Amino acid sequence: MKKLIQVAIFVSVGTLISCNSTPIVPSADSIKISREIPKDPECKNLGRVQGKTISVKPDLEGAIQDMKKEAAYKGANYLVMETASGYETAVSGTAYYCP
């Protein structure tokens, strides 16, 4: 009987967890990217972020996507792109959260 209760609890918890539709990490696609610092004083600076690609050929878009993913992990929704490497394989900037 005790084993049956444990299995029922395990299945119930598993079902509740699987119903959660909120992503753990925000989507990188929803991050606005700019070369200008946000004008809204409510925006919070979340720190520096970097993106890179290991491609042999230049892939600036891939590096930007990598940087956006790092910004998303920090909870950012706005990204200021500041530098790009001469070989277009690395970029850096600052992540912000703007309400």
Architecture in CATH? 2-Layer Sandwich
CATH class: Alpha Beta
The gyration radius over C-alpha positions equals 20 Å
CATH homologous superfamily heading: Hypothetical protein apc22750. Chain B
Question: Which percent range describes the beta-strand content?
Answer: 25-35%
Point out poorly predicted stretches.
none
- Domains, number: 1
- pLDDT average, as an integer? 83
In percent, how helical is the residue content? 25-40%
Order of helices and strands: HEEHEE
CATH topology: Translation Initiation Factor IF3
- Overall geometry comes to flat
What is the strand arrangement across the widest sheet? 1-3-4-2
**Beta-strand segment tally:** 4
Structure classification? alpha+beta
Let me know the largest β-sheet.
4 strands, mixed
Number of helical segments with 4 or more residues: 2
Distance between the termini: 52 Å
Give an overview of the whole structure.
With 99 residues, this protein is an alpha+beta fold. It has a single domain (26-97), classed as Translation Initiation Factor IF3 (2-Layer Sandwich). The protein is 31% helix and 27% strand. It has helices at residues 2-18, 60-73, and strands at 32-34, 44-52, 78-84, 90-97. The protein has a four-stranded mixed beta sheet with strand order 1-3-4-2. A hairpin with a 5-residue loop joins β3 and β4. The longest helix is centred in the N-terminal third of the chain and has 17 residues, at 2-18. The protein starts with a helix and ends with a strand.
